[in-house]
Specification:
The chain is mostly helical. It has one domain. The two termini are 21 Å apart.
């Protein structure tokens, strides 16, 4: 839904809920920044993940929050993506997505 990092936060949250976080940390500062933009605490986000088995259900649960984002929020998300692009690219390369 156009939110950078959201997919990764979902995956990390699910891994934590499944007691298999591995080397991943949830919530990290980047998770918290995205969740704050959506007016969610990490615990609220995990509750959504617990009650939403699939990605579609998670996005449905978040859709009202995402649709209420204003132009300033979207600009902040673009800045987030630019600010963290090197880290995101490094992680994608390390995990075989690039």
């Amino acid at each position: 839904m156009g939110i950078p990092w959201l997919g990764r936060a979902i995956d990390k949250g699910r891994m934590l809920l499944g007691d298999k976080p591995g080397d991943y940390v949830f919530p990290c500062a980047m998770d918290e920044e995205i969740l704050a933009r959506l007016s969610l605490t990490p615990d609220q986000f995990l509750a959504i993940l617990e009650t939403s088995p699939g990605d579609g259900e998670v996005l449905q649960a978040l859709s009202h929050r995402i649709s209420s984002l204003g132009p300033g929020d979207w600009m902040a998300l673009d800045v987030f993506l630019v600010r963290h692009s090197r880290l995101i690219d490094d992680q994608d390369r390390e995990e075989g997505r690039l």
